[in-house]
Amino acid sequence: MTTGVYSENDTLFTMHDLVHDLARFFMVNEILVASKQGNSGGSQGNTCHFALLNDCSKPLESPKIRALLFMECGKTKLHGGAFSFSKSMHVLDLSDCSIHKLLDSIGKLKQLRYLMAPRVQDETIPDSFTKQSKLIYLNLHGSHKILALPKLIGEIEGLMYLDLSDCSIGAELPESFERLKELLHLDLSNCCIQKILEALVSFIQLKYLNLSGCRHRTELPRLFGSL
After folding, report:
1. How many other CB atoms are found less than 10 A from the CB of residue 66?
2. How far apart are CA 187 and CA 199, in angstroms?
3. Does 65 share its domain with 113?
4. Helical residues (DSSP H) of the chain, grouped into ranges
5. pTM score, two decimals?
6. What is the pLDDT of residues 2-20, one digit of tens each?
7. Residue where a domain terminates, one of 88, 119, 144
8. H/E element holding 91?
9. Contacting residues for 96 by C-beta, under 8 A, at least 6 apart
10. Where in this chain does the entry annotate a coiled-coil region (predicted)?
11. Does residue 1 lie in a domain region?
12. What is the domain extent for residue 29?
């Protein structure tokens, strides 16, 4: 007779497998995978909360989607109505898309908390973008053509993470920028900002600040050391 000896690691791996299988069991009807169901997902698409799509040239017709990730879409232009039906969207990841411009429809996603939209190829950010009062995370890194931030960007007062690295966002930040009091992470590396707002010294929540590569900036505010 052979006696099996199980170590603590074996037990952990077994528990991990069980949890994984259990998650798949419960989530099977909540995930829309494009390779299997297309962007509409038929009747099932109306109940899905999470979507993994490999075609951003078609509209998403699932109104209850809360998290959307596009995969392998780097050479495909983002469709103007790619997610206009999804009013409950919390997470939107466009990092694998060709973003010719930030769509006005993004500004209509009133529940959006997380937006990853790097390498935007347009010069402007729609004014409607500043209406996303619940946005916490915004990443626009590598958007070389953006000339300026919206004047009212400060209306996104709950913003905690902002990455504008490698962006051409003009000589100075908008005055409303000082209203982003909840910022924890701010990356302005490799931006040609010639004037750093005195308001930055009031960002008392700030944990991370990157100004590396800002070669054209003037002297930092006198009170900067109080951060």
Report:
1. 18
2. 16
3. no
4. 8-27, 34-37
5. 0.75
6. 444 445 445 444 555 555 4
7. 88
8. strand 91-93
9. 69, 70, 71, 72, 73, 74
10. none
11. no
12. 7-70+81-88
